[in-house]
Design goal:
774 residues; 29 helices; mainly alpha; Tetracycline Repressor, domain 2; two-stranded antiparallel ribbon
Amino acid sequence: MAEFDIQQLVLVSDATNDAENLEHLGPTMKDVYRNNKMKPFLDQLGMFIRRKEMEIEKMCNSNYQEFVQSVDRLLKVRQGTVDLKDKIHTLNTDVQLAGKELTAKKRELVESKRIQENIATATETLKTCIHFLDLANRVNVQVEARKYYSALRIVDEIQVVHLRSVIQFEFARHMQDCVPILQHAIKDAVTTEMKEWLFSIRTSQKAMGKLAMDRMSARQQRWRDRSSKGFKLKTSHNVNSAVEAAVNEESEIDILDADQVKIDFKPLYQCLHIYDELGQRAEFRSNYAEDRRAQAKLTLSSMTSSFNLKDRNTDNFESLLQDIVGFFIVEYIILHSTTNFRTQAQLDELCDLVTGLLLRMLSEGLEKCNDPDMFLNVKLLLMIYIQTMESYSYPVSKLNDLLLTLFRTYADQLETKFSANFHKLVDEDDYTPMLVENQDEYNLLQMSFRFREERSAARQGFPRTLPFSKVVPYCCEDIKQFVTQFYRFVEGFNQEQSEMDELVKDSLDTLLIQHVHSVWLKKLESRNLSQIAQIIINLEYFQGACTDFEQMMTELRSTSDTTKISLQATGLFRETRRSAENRISELVNSKIDDILELAEYEWLPSSVQEMHSMYLQELVSFLEVVMSATLLNLPESIKTFVYYDVLEHLANMLHSIFTDPNVKHINQNFVATFNMDVSFLEKFVATFDNANVAMTFLPLRQLITLLLSENTEEYMDPQIRSQHYAQVKPEDVTRMLEKLMTAPVAAAATTQEKTKRRSWGKVLEWGGLKSSSS
């Protein structure tokens, strides 16, 4: 075992180095001691050493000559080495001497290099400082050149990039403290420029507002022309409606592209950009909103002092509206060209503020204004303003409410104005047929109102007399103006249209009823037949004109309702015309009554008069004048009515005289005389060539004929009675026969007279007469 360990150590020693031998020696020695084999191991180790010595000796014996040669060479080499060592020593001494000088030079070089580096560092530092200071100076230069963003970028560059490299210097630390001041100075400068811009654009924004309102006015006219060709477009769509906007889109040009508008928004956008870079957008948004609010108030307050409508001049008001429109167009452009800066709610709030101030100003300015034309001018300007603002999506409901208020006031004032005109026209009318001098006057008259003439009248030359008096065309012309001005005010309204249509109708009714109809109705109380006859003619034409007015309002009304408008005045004119007809009859009848009061009859004359009574001549003369002159221009239907009514009244009055119950006795001579008077009147009535009018005297004629008949008993024959005496009342027959029977009889009565009296007695005793009377 010990031998094996020795061999193992030898093998290991051959294959490994000394360090590794020691590693293997430890375990081997440990095994020897553990197994208590130290002595055998030492014996083996000794034997191993002797064996190796023998091998070495053997090897030396076989290589001795070569060994001697090697030793000789080694000795020679040793001598050479000693010589070389001496030379090296000498050389080292020389090198040491040279090295000392070189070291000194090197130290000098290192010191010089350090100094050079310090100089370079100082130079670089100075360059950095100079660049830093130059940048700081360029901030002011850029601000003066109004290049605020560049100035702000330089400040940021100083703060972020350059300040760190020079922070060890006092001026840099001072500059670090000044960075916020520089930023604030840039902000103040850009804000100042923006405010100057806000002030400077006032002129430009007014030009922009004027252009926008002029364009809206042209747009209104284009739509008015287009919608006039289609009723549905007119009544269902207004300016700014979807349909109108689609039609107008192709002709609309961006207002900023117009030559009249020169507004550069750069100062605002630049200011907004700077505030964004500083992270202070909210502050700028708030300040800008407050500035614009104050500017809007200032604009209105400056105009309020000079706003006055008493001089009927709306130039200042129009200029104010243009200024407001321009102001809000600028806001609209800013809203849509920026992000998260202005909101629609802010603009709506500002618009409401301006609207409130505008409403108050208008209310004060129009408070004592009584001129409807001024109200119309204000409305036209307001409508253009409203539709312009609406086209830019601003709220206009309060302004529309104002228009409604203005409309009601305008309606009252227009009614007052035209009522005075109408009253004056009606009151100052001469109530004579109108004379037209030439064709031009006639054509103008036809434009005022449509009227028809008889063909015979139409063929007449000029001058020509027309049936109506001048008040008719004058009033019709005023009414057309009244309605037209009403609807001119209404034009463009988007709401309450039916209410406005009703208001127009009611106002026109009021004018016609209170200031035309009422005046004519009052004039009917006069006793001037010519005037009343002319009023009847005027009423007839006015009644026809009312139909035209109704048609005109139906066509002009703002709603799509096709129901025909009906004026109450039309019916009143019709009723008043009937009243006027009755009034003529009443006056003529009154005159007839006055003349009949002159009638004096002898109830028991001894003979028959040779001619009719004289009062009848006066009566007929009066009726001839009335019929041929006073009532000449009346329509045939009215003349027939008046003739019939008057002659019926005359017949009734004569019948009353003839059958007067207070007269107890009459004779045949009275009946014959009265028959002569009635015959005279019948001849006069026959000149009218009207069967209906001639029938008015029939009851009286049949009664007289019966009393003068040679055979009164024929009355008892039903057939004869129905043919010849149908209009005779039995009680009149009884009364008149009793008067004849009780009259004194002459002593020399003829046989014929006695026969008549017997015939009268039979009729009186006839039961049919008594039963009819009862």
